[in-house]
Design brief:
The chain has 253 residues and is an alpha/beta fold. It has eight helices and twelve strands. The strands form four sheets. It has a six-stranded mixed sheet with strand order 9-8-6-4-10-12. The longest helix is centred in the middle third of the chain and has 11 residues, at 118-128.
Length: 253
């Protein structure tokens, strides 16, 4: 299983640029090049530590500031290329919340700010046969595991017409509770924060624009094999000073 194509979604949310692919002729019928125009946040991506600050004080991870990212004093603090130097590989764990909702009759809208609580993820894990507590507390989560949560956005996305997808992607964007860009994801609660901290996940990802990394056909393979863990590799872009990266990811069963 691998990442979504770079041109999906065709119209990204949050006013981000669409992917552009052009072929450059070096010598007709002899040699060609590719050229890409890519916003790394437009599709399947890793958010680097300089992507979004803690809003109350406008400080990024490791005391990084906007002046470290852009401007005359810009540097490589928290740059994405540090990830590329060694790549990412480890055990992935999928919590298929979308299938759990369908099985239990739980209403859930990927295009609204529906929240997934820790208690709901715990129940989802139990349904799959996974104890989502950290190993130190008697659960199945090992330090360094890579968490994937399927909320069903991609399935919902492909069920809509191109016109409907574009309309939803182009909803007005502004920071704050009135933001028209609304997507489902994990709930902002103490129980969720404590769980994510205590498990020491290497990465967390989902299939929504606000928590997205992998395509949903991975969930189908997990169902067929009744296996919710797998080996994951990812090669982030080696771009010094980069904010984020397309994933270049593969899940191996």
């Amino acid at each position: 299983m691998s990442s979504l194509p770079l041109n999906h979604p065709k119209t990204p949310g949050f006013a981000r640029e669409s992917f552009e692919h052009n072929i450059k002729t070096l010598a007709e019928d002899v040699a060609y090049d590719d050229t890409y125009k890519l916003n790394t946040q437009s599709g399947t991506q890793w958010d680097g530590f300089r992507h979004f600050a803690w809003i109350p004080n406008n400080v990024f991870y490791n005391n990084t500031h906007g002046s470290d990212i852009l401007g005359p004093a810009a540097n490589h603090k928290c740059s994405i290329h540090h990830w590329a130097n060694h790549g990412i590989a480890g055990r992935g764990i999928l919590l298929d919340y979308k299938s759990y909702c369908e099985k239990k009759g739980v209403a859930f809208n990927s295009y609204e700010a529906d929240r997934i609580s820790y208690a709901e993820l715990e129940a989802c894990g139990i349904d799959q046969g996974i104890d989502i507590r950290p190993h130190a507390q008697g659960g199945d989560i090992q330090i360094g595991d890579m968490l994937f949560i399927r909320s069903g956005f991609i399935k919902t996305y492909y069920s809509k017409t191109p016109e409907e997808r574009d309309k939803l992607a182009l909803r007005a964007h502004q920071l704050g509770p009135e933001d028209g860009q609304r997507y489902a994801g994990v709930k902002q609660e103490e129980a969720m924060i404590d769980w994510l901290h205590d498990c020491y996940f290497a990465t967390v990802a989902g299939d929504s624009p606000t928590f997205e990394a992998w395509p949903t056909n991975q969930a189908q393979v997990c169902k067929e094999k009744n296996r919710w863990t797998f080996f994951v590799t990812s090669a982030p872009a080696n771009v010094p000073g980069g904010v984020g990266s397309h994933v270049n990811g593969t899940a191996i069963f």
